[in-house]
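Form 7-S
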Amino acid sequence: MATVAIAVMAACGFDPGTLPGTDGPLDDGRGTDALSCAAIDVAAGGDHTCAISGDGSLYCWGRGDDGQIGIDPLSHRCVANTIHCQKTPAKLALPPTAAVGLGGFHTCSTSGEQAYCWGKNSTAQYGNGTIVGSTRPTPIDQRTGATAFDGGTGHGCSLVGSILSCSGANGEGQVGNMSIVQQATAVAVKNDVASFSLGTTTSCAVDTAKSLYCWGRNAYKTIDQTGMIRTLPTLVAGITDVDQVAVGADHVCAVTGGVVKCWGLNSAGQVGNGGTNPTSQPQPITTVTGIANAVEVVASRNHTCARTAAGDVYCFGDGYTPTPALVASGATKITGGSNHDCAVFGDGTVRCWGDQTYGQLGNNVDSASRSTTPQPAVLCP
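Output:
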């Protein structure tokens, strides 16, 4: 992460200097220097968003009624004065953050060896053996050493070295431990993992040989042709040489050799084959046309976005068209929540678009109207 920060800041003409240590909490106020105010990474959950700046500062915003943005107390209310939210990025009091991952209603991060989680934990998604949630970052020793996190609606996974560990809701086998019983403590479910992604109740991982394994909900044949849940990591046939995977509610997409491929439910055009299927007939693995030299894909509830090596961002599915449409250019990282998407750009800015009901775009707006153009989420106004 530090390497990425230095590269981004240097490209913007900033002197990165020396990154701070991890021996104490950061000030809860906003920074003013270039490193603290320019983003290098962004992650979106159900209706909330977090970004990491060049000095490791973590900012979060959006829906917060379950504590998922780590800010307490929250005085502002969105949605007819009923849901607590944060409409602009707020800096959390944490040591420098190396990675952050968001679920539907919870968030986890890592600062050095120490992992933290906050938000909803009613199905044990923290993995610390409890179902007690927190409105502020809570140390999770069971995920010590994690370098990546992701969350579904009620489960969460983390990567330590190449070992993927998961916990939480497991009614469709999404934890991957050969069970359909809720898993309270993070348990190792697969070795040799290079990257992974969690959807609502489906989990997928790419191994070091670039093979794709998925487990959990399989109603739309996202894992195999049986349509039955899979409680253990299962090799997905028909796709090889996978560079990255992204899981939505009931569809999966992957990048392989610069090409985006998607399959599963296509009710809103989220598979990107140019049409929709209201009868919910599962779509086979399909090559998405119109996106060249893809390097990243994110699958949200019922839509998909992909980024090319040139930084162009294309989206398709719910809220978009059934074929890829150019949304933004110059992006270095993309992410997607349930109904909103965000990107980090080469100048260190974060911009988001889509649903802004809960302030999840970070532009000081909570409105039922959808933003079709990227809106700035300013880390240091």
